[in-house]
Design goal:
- With 266 residues, the protein is an alpha+beta fold.
- It folds into two domains: 145 residues, 2-Layer Sandwich (Fructose-1,6-Bisphosphatase, Chain A, domain 1); 106 residues, D-Maltodextrin-Binding Protein, domain 2, CATH 3.40.190.80.
- Helix content is 34%, strand content 29%.
- It is globular and about 50 Å long.
Length: 266
């Protein structure tokens, strides 16, 4: 939406940061608590949701109803809300709930703003470390302890020099696991288990690739905006749009993205 004015951009950023600010104390109240109230979304397998997930999303929806009543909302825990403005807030209150209940600080609060063809701004917030990664309208930043710095992806010309991340080794179907392994064996280093934090590391120029499958829109839109506005690229495994989730590859350098994509789509 190139016709968004400077004042409108400022307002949207203010709302996005207000949502992230509201989520922090709720998340910290429950993180590493002695007892976790858990529900399992699956009859077979394990897909947990906590009281923190529901409480955070509920509060973010309350703020949006007050501040941006004409905007739509897509969130993980509650039903979608249709809007009339052409803008939709895409919310994941706790991305990486398995990490959250395990006490590891690689989960995050994800906020994206979709204008119809993908996110125009996004936030990856890590309340425990106090880090906030944000990207939108041509800029990307990392903030912590009152300091804000501009971030950008790093150069990586070849897959053999790339650091690759994914949340789980069993990335999906047998086909998807095999495709991922074709990339992994050529990468310099492969690491697992960092959830949304890995995407933030791409935006910050610390790593080069994240490859995942089975994502939803709320898993990727916040991180996607951060990476794209830091100079990176995010697509599906065929090189198409990835803002609605599915099979996703995020890269800092278009050259290593192209090499990995050729192996994934083979």
């Amino acid at each position: 939406m190139s016709d968004i004015s400077k004042s409108q951009k400022a307002e949207l950023w203010n709302v996005a940061h207000e949502l992230a600010d509201a989520a922090r104390p709720i998340a910290l109240q429950y993180f590493r608590a002695s007892e976790q109230e858990l529900e399992n979304k699956l009859d077979q397998g394990f897909d947990p949701v906590t009281i923190a997930d529901k409480s955070i999303e509920g509060e973010m929806r309350r703020i949006l109803a007050e501040r941006r009543p004409d905007d739509g909302i897509m969130g993980e825990e509650y039903d979608d809300v249709a809007g009339t403005s052409g803008l939709t807030w895409v919310l994941d209150p706790i991305d990486g709930t398995r990490a959250f209940i395990s006490g590891t600080p690689t989960w995050g609060v994800l906020i994206g703003l979709d204008a119809g063809q993908g996110p125009i701004l996004g936030i990856v917030d890590q309340p425990f470390t106090g880090e906030r990664f944000s990207g939108g309208f041509g800029q990307a930043n990392w903030a912590r302890v009152g300091q804000t710095n501009t971030i950008s992806v790093r150069k990586c010309a070849t897959l053999s020099d790339a650091i690759l991340f994914s949340t789980m080794p069993d990335i999906g179907t047998a086909y998807e696991i095999a495709a991922f392994q074709r990339v992994s064996v050529q990468a310099k280093l492969t690491r697992y288990g960092t959830d949304c934090y890995a995407y933030a590391l791409v935006a910050a120029g610390q790593i080069d690739l994240v490859i995942e499958a089975g994502l939803n829109a709320f898993d990727i839109q916040g991180p996607m905006a951060c990476i794209q506005n830091a100079g990176g690229i995010v697509t599906d495994w065929q090189g198409g749009p990835a803002h609605m989730g599915g099979q996703v590859i995020a890269a800092g350098d278009a050259r290593v993205h192209s090499q990995a994509l050729a192996l994934l789509s083979r």
